Amino acid sequence: MDLAAKDSYIQKLASKVISQREEPKKRAFVHFKGKSDTDPPSKKKKKLKKKNVRENSTDRTPKHQQKPNPSPATPKSLGKTKSTSESLNGSTLHTPKDTSFSTVDALRKRLHEKIEESRGQGAPQDALSEAVKAKRAKRKMERERKKRKRKEFLMKKLPEQSGQEQPAEIKEEPIAPAADKRVTSAVVFNKVETVDKGYETKIQAKMKKKKGEKGKITPLTGKNYKQLLSRVEARKEKLERLREKDEAKASEMENKIKWTNMLYKAEGIKIKDDEDQLRTSLKRKEKRRAQRKKKWTNRSEQVIEKMQQRQDKRRKNLQKQKQGKMEKRKNRARKKGRVLPEDLKKAARKQLRYVYAYFYVEDLKYAFISANHGQTTLCEQNNRVEFTQLAADYKAVNLGQGFPDFSPPQFVQDAFCKAVSGGPQMHQYTRAFGHPRLVKSLAKFFSRIVGHEIDPFEDVLVTVGAYQALFCAFQALIDDGDEVIIVEPFFDCYQPMVLMAGGTAVYVPLRPKGSSTVLSSGDWVLSAEELASKITPRTKAIVINSPNNPLGKVYKVEELQMIADLCIKHDLLCFSDEVYEWLTYDGAKHVKIASLPGMWERTITVGSAGKTFSATGWKVGWAISSGKLIKHMKIVHQNSVYHCATAAQEAVSHGFDREYELFGTPESYFQQLPAMLHQKRQKLASCLRSVGLQPVMPEGGYFMITDISSVHVDLNDESTKNESYDFRFVKWLIKEKGLATIPVSAFFSPEHSKEFDKYIRFCFVKFGDQIPWKKRKVELKEKHKQWKKAKLIKRLEKQKQQETAERAEQEECQSKKGRAYTVSVALPGSVLDNAQSPELRTYLAGQIARACVVFNVDEIIVFDEQGEDVKSVEGEFKGVGKKGHACIQLARILQYMECPQYLRKWFFPVHKDLQYAGLLNPLDSPHHMRIDEESEYREGRVLNKPPKQGKGSLVNCGMRKDVRIDKQLQPDLRVTVKLTKTQNQESRLYKGVVVAPHVPRTEGGLYWGYTVRLASCLSSVFTESPFKEGYDLTVGTSERGSSVDQVTLSPFKHLLVVFGGLQGLEASLDADQNLDVTDPSDLFDLYLNTCPDQGSRTIRTEEAILISMATLKQKIRAAFSEDSSSS
């Protein structure tokens, strides 16, 4: 753009600005009270201001081009100037005609004028018009008038409230309009008019109130019932005191109070002087206050609870988010190849991934449940527990359980006492995997025997007895599906421990040699071929016990080498239980299998201080093996038991230190103990031979088994008939002879136990001279006699109590007014075919049910007059007029109506026959109870809840609480319950007894509904009677029968009334092939016309039931009333 164009653009813009400057309006400056000076300008003003600034900025010219303007033009003169146009390079520039000016100076002048006006220092130059002034004056007068009206209203209202006279009305006076011009230098204030509103002081108000009281008696008004009640009581006491002093004054005062109250009531004031009503109102008010308080408390608690729940939820969400983030970080780290500490722990606990639950069942069997597979494996019962308890019950001499009846050696006892009193360290935790002194002693002692240097802190683990050492070995080294070969007979814990580790037990038995007489446990041998045949690719370990319990066999070096060769060949582990290693006899030598070549790295050797030092109660055991195997066992140990008794470990370490020094010498305890037990073994063997038994002499341990096949005793006990022979023999021995042993078949697997059920085990470690056998036998016989006598007396007393209770119950039943006889009604199901729709069929069945209930019918028989075989209600209705299903539908509806309403949903599923059950009228019989209705009897349903041991099932009887009955019944069974008379209302359950359904009728005198029976034909009504004696009185109804008025009924037990169908009883008789008679009257004792001289040709069945039962009811009542009077 060239310079000429720029000048032309600026000239046009200036002329536009000048043309927009209009003459300002002539108006006075008025303060705007709606906004303060500090309020921000509105959006509209902001826009206008920005627009003006932009326009002014475009019209501004540089200072060096401006011309001096000595007399600046006013806005008025500027607005009236005329501009002329001059041509400059083809463009025109509009300029003022009379004077030259600067746009910036004009805007500055206008700004100063605005500032002066806002400060109130100058009046506007132009006056307002007359119309504007008049309008503003009128608005001001209107505002003043409204203000006066408001004041008058308040002045009228206040005297009414305070009882003063109203002031005179204030006349409106016009206020002169304000002057056009105001003094600019003066300050104008708003006028405030004060009016005396007639307020009074408290003393004046009180005095005025007293003057308004009648007779100086304050009226009893208001809602402060507590204060009113106290005033009434005070007034009453005052009158009583005045009456004691002066009767006349009291009467005068009382009359004055009554008269004053009447005056107040005449004025419409309600006087509250009734003491009882005040107390009631106060109580109601306090109750409402308490309710509101309780409601508020509950609401506050709910709000707090909701807040707490929200906080908990938020906290859980935050924790979840935090854990999620942490897991994501861990997963990212795992993807990068990092190994986390928790992954190492999981890998170390690989063998502990199976969780098993251990529980006992009623027959002392225990089960182990695999969490991974959900399978339950029942093991044989724990024989030690069972037979130990049986021995204790019969106070028998216990030669079955394996523990000594003498104390440990004195040097071990002294070491234990010294450890206990040796300072605080012996009473605190020690090293988790074994007391340092003990593991060093064990490593030092057994290194010499094994021929291998044992590391005390890597190769030795001290456990809570040998039992826990075995447990750690199986849990740490046996995986799911691994097979473990167990040599039989075996200690009873091996099999459960294998199952708990997820493994499978495979059994190989020791068998006696071919000779007919077995003299030593050494004659029982292990077949190498059979053992090798049991090894499979899944075989993991072989378990041996040397010396063996219960056999006493000590494995020879050749047998151990055979086992070692198989272990090395198939890379198997060996668990060697050697707790009896120091107890060997007759030159037998115990050899550790771990000492054989190639077996140290694969053998777990288990030992026990309880067997070594005869201190079974200390529970100190150990496992010795390579550190590679022991480290896995340590993980199981630290996560199950963690630690063993410190003092006991200290004492055992002293014992091994002593034996290390005396090993092989006569002073060694390991030499003295076998010598002592050898004498006991010989004595027990001679005793067994003296009674005709053949003992198997043990080479080691302190158990001896004997053959009992030569003993012939009567073992035909019903309680033990399903058990093996040795089990029955041991129980007979305990009960009859007072001697407790253990059956040997318990140490074999089920597949081999039958081969060895002719042996029992004795423990000779307890066998000594202190047992007086003859005296013991006499005592046992005497005790047995006394026990039998006490048992007989107890049985007689119990029988006597039962007879007394039965006699009392019979007397109570006789005293009650019950109904012994029953009434049955039989009718054909074809009566429903007379109805034209399913709705009418349902309603007809309901009418029949109600008719039977009204007249106390106990049984309804629905028979098929066509002779079809219908004996269940599991049919289906196929439509009106269809054949054979009317009986089923009628029976189903009758059963549905008889069932109490709170039990129907359990016994009647949705069915087409019950589609219109809503049309049925309720029976409302006595056994249809409401939820809070009290009754001695109730119908109920046995709940599907497992009952507690020794307690009965739970029954839902339609009450707010379930009922605990006296028996354990099958779930979902309908029962009649007799409730206990005195119930504990605070108890969670009611108590009751199950009774027969007829008891409420026979004993309680209550009608208890009816039963429904289906009969395939008319003859089945008689032949299939639920009563043993049948029906002793039968009545047939027909218009062809004799008149009922001429009949008298005799007493009966079971009455049967039979009704015919649409074609009468004759049609039912003709269709029944089992009946040879042609006349229906031959079937019944009475063939009656219950409605003689009937006006209709036909009587419907539901009508016949009502008519007949109403007529017969009088006859029945007369029969039994005559019988009771004659008796």
Summarize model confidence as the mean pLDDT. 79
What is the radius of gyration computed over CA atoms, rounded to a whole number of angstroms?
Answer: 57 Å
Which bin fits the share of residues in helices?
40-55%
CATH superfamily of one domain: Type I PLP-dependent aspartate aminotransferase-like (Major domain)
| Strand adjacency order, main sheet | 7-15-14-13-12-8-9
Task: Detail the poorly predicted runs.
Answer: 21-39, 42-101, 121-125, 163-197, 349-381, 869-884
End-to-end Cα distance? 145 Å
InterPro entries: Alpha/beta_knot_MTases, Aminotransferase_I/II_large, Kynurenine-oxoglutarate_AT, NA-bd_OB-fold, Put_MeTrfase-C9orf114-like, PyrdxlP-dep_Trfase, PyrdxlP-dep_Trfase_major, PyrdxlP-dep_Trfase_small
Pathway: Amino-acid degradation; L-kynurenine degradation; kynurenate from L-kynurenine: step 1/2
Family: Belongs to the class IV-like SAM-binding methyltransferase superfamily. Belongs to the class-I pyridoxal-phosphate-dependent aminotransferase family.
Main location: cytoplasm
Describe the structure.
The protein is α/β, with parallel strands linked by helices. Among the domains are: 219-305, no CATH class; 432-512 and 521-656, Type I PLP-dependent aspartate aminotransferase-like (Major domain) (Aspartate Aminotransferase, domain 2, 3-Layer(aba) Sandwich); 816-876 and 1011-1126, SPOUT methyltransferase, trefoil knot domain (Alpha/beta knot); 926-1008, Beta Barrel (OB fold (Dihydrolipoamide Acetyltransferase, E2P)), CATH 2.40.50. The protein is built from 30 helices and 31 strands. Strands 7-15-14-13-12-8-9 form a seven-stranded mixed sheet, sandwiched between helices. A six-stranded parallel sheet has the order 28-22-21-30-29-31. A hairpin with a 6-residue loop joins strand 24 and strand 25. The radius of gyration is 57 Å and the shape is extended.
